[in-house]
């Protein structure tokens, strides 16, 4: 398996097109994570089915969020994407998120070439409000059966704010 942090970088952040690696497909309750030390995907846990992911979930290579992991991405597509692929993704916003007291932001992206939607999604405002509500509910409650109240969606940010979060995460990676 390829070491995504060695063969990919974050992409063209200023241009809004970044590289994203898929960890968890939409609808899965398997918490699959990239193990940076071993350069493999690892099943961390199985969450209750009621908390299956409402969207694809992945990471941006050569980034480091404040929680010590690669910066997370929420990948919006109509169909689930398989674990282990990467895509060129258009940045459309950021979900400002805290998990157990640690900043764990999520960059919201869509495929850079989405002919199914006609590339209709360019900002969070373009997404269905119900999807934003579902994402907020999921990330506010997915740990409730184990550690209730430990996850908080603090706010949503626009493309400019998302790019700043990515740039800060790239710098943390470089400072490793």
Can you give keywords for this protein?
globular, alpha+beta, 34% strand, 10 strands
Note down, in words, how this protein is organized.
This protein is an alpha+beta fold. The chain is 21% helix and 34% strand. Strands 2-5-6-9-7 form a 5-stranded mixed barrel. The chain has a two-stranded antiparallel ribbon with strand order 3-4. Strand 1 and strand 2 form a beta hairpin. It starts with a helix and ends with a helix. The model has no long low-confidence stretch (mean pLDDT 97).
What's this entry about, in short?
This protein is of the alpha+beta class and 176 residues long. It has helices at 4-7, 129-141, 144-147, 159-174; strands at residues 11-12, 17-24, 30-35, 40-46, 56-59, 72-75, 86-99, 102-103, 106-111, 151-157.
Fraction in beta strands? 25-35%
Main sheet makeup: 5 strands, mixed, barrel
Q: Please count the beta strands (DSSP E, at least 2 residues each).
A: 10
* Strand arrangement in the largest pleated sheet: 2-5-6-9-7
- Count, helices: 4
Overall geometry comes to: globular
Overall SS class: alpha+beta
Q: Separation of termini?
A: 23 Å
Q: Give the integer mean of the pLDDT values.
A: 97
| Helix content percent band | 10-25%
> Which segments are poorly predicted (pLDDT under 50) over 5 or more consecutive residues?
none
Order of helices and strands: HEEEEEEEEEHHEH
Question: Rg, please?
Answer: 15 Å
Oligomer: single chain
């Amino acid at each position: 398996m390829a070491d995504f942090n060695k063969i990919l970088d974050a992409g063209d952040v200023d241009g809004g097109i970044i590289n994203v690696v898929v960890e968890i497909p939409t609808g899965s309750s398997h918490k699959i994570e990239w193990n940076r030390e071993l350069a493999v995907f690892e099943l961390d846990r199985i969450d209750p089915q009621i908390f299956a992911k409402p969207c694809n979930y992945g990471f941006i290579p050569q980034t480091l969020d404040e929680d010590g992991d690669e910066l997370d991405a929420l990948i919006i597509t109509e169909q689930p994407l398989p674990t282990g692929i990467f895509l060129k993704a258009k940045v459309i916003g950021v979900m400002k998120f805290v998990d157990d007291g640690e900043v764990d932001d999520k960059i919201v992206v869509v495929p850079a070439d989405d002919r199914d939607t006609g590339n209709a999604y360019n900002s969070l405002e373009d997404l269905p409000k119900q999807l934003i509500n579902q994402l907020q509910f999921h990330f506010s409650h997915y740990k409730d059966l184990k550690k209730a109240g430990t996850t908080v969606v603090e706010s949503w940010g626009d493309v400019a704010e998302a790019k700043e979060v990515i740039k800060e995460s790239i710098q943390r990676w470089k400072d490793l």
